[in-house]
Amino acid sequence: MTEQGKEKEKGINLLIITGMSGAGKTVAVQSLEDLGFFCVDNLPSILIPKFAELIKQTKQTGGGIERVALVIDLRSREFFESLPDVIYSLQQIEEIYFQILYLDASDHTLVSRYKETRRRHPLSPTGSPLEGILAERRLLQEMKGLANQIIDTSQMKPAQLRDKIITQYTLQSSPLTINILSFGFKYGIPIDADLVFDVRFLPNPHYVDNLRPKTGCDPDVSEYVLKWSETKEFLAKLLDLLRFTLPHYQREGKSQLVIGIGCTGGKHRSVAIAEHIGGVFNAEFTVRVTHRDMEKNK
């Protein structure tokens, strides 16, 4: 991983996130987690080299962890002072490529954020937030000097910081997994769906005697659902919409998208449409097709 967001082709890419309390470390790690990083919050610094060796061994035995983000801050103050020595130790581990991301903000901004959240500063639990902020700056001075990148969040809203993190650390080849889920409206709309499309307006195989016992996975049911002019027009418009939106979701760093396709019982129309959409996008994205309610009417 470089400052341009490129990754080493081999080895483990380790990002250490540190900086001022209230500067946005939580937003940063949540954004990185959405990008597929394996994230650990508040790991004692003395454990970082052992953790890095463990991840390295896991990869050598076929593990899939290649991008790791660690949040290190003054919650583990008793270990924090050893962090510069830990950084030196990491430099001695082969196939571990690390960078330090330091998040900062002005004293005025940090005081305002503490007042808004009514939180106490970890270094000044009984005093003013400013006292803790000034003490924290002194303790973090060396780490700031070691940082590969410093982001000042004083003028940033959480969404803006998220966008910057995603832009910085998104891989150009980062895959978007599309989960296409068929369902029956009578069993409820899936709560985890990002997009929901209702296909109850299409001709229903339920009213065809020889098709009723079958499902949308059966070729004759699928053929029946897909043959109608309204189905063809609907699919043309839907696929055009998805072809436009999916690359934008990917550029925004979204790693998974759940598309719900619903009919009355989730057995015929929604299943056939979900299978068809999955087949269209299977060559471009990682696609999983699931039929939540298909077996409920059997």
How would you describe the overall organization of this protein?
It is built from 10 helices and 9 strands. α5 packs across α6 (129-146) and α8 packs across α10. Mean pLDDT is 84; it is low at 1-9. The strands form 2 sheets. Strands 2-3-1-4-5 form a 5-stranded parallel sheet, with helices on both faces. A 4-stranded parallel sheet has the order 7-8-6-9, with helices on one face. 41% of the residues lie in helices and 19% in strands. The chain has helices spanning 25-34, 48-60, 77-80, 83-91, 107-117, 129-146, 158-169, 219-226, 229-251, 269-281, and strands spanning 12-19, 38-41, 67-71, 96-104, 149-152, 177-184, 195-198, 256-263, 286-291. With 298 residues, the chain is α/β, with parallel strands linked by helices. α2 links the parallel β2 and β3.
Short description:
The protein has 298 residues and is α/β, with parallel strands linked by helices. It has ten helices and nine strands.
Figure out the total of helices.
10
| Lateral arrangement of strands in the main beta sheet | 2-3-1-4-5
Major sheet attributes = 5 strands, parallel
N/C terminus separation: 51 Å
What is the H/E string? Answer: EHEHEHHEHHEHEEHHEHE
What is the CA-atom radius of gyration, in angstroms?
Answer: 25 Å
Helix content: 40-55%
Total DSSP E strands = 9
What is the general shape?
elongated
Q: What's the layout of helices and strands?
A:
Elements: E1 12-19, H1 25-34, E2 38-41, H2 48-60, E3 67-71, H3 77-80, H4 83-91, E4 96-104, H5 107-117, H6 129-146, E5 149-152, H7 158-169, E6 177-184, E7 195-198, H8 219-226, H9 229-251, E8 256-263, H10 269-281, E9 286-291
Helix pairs in contact: 1-7, 5-6, 8-10
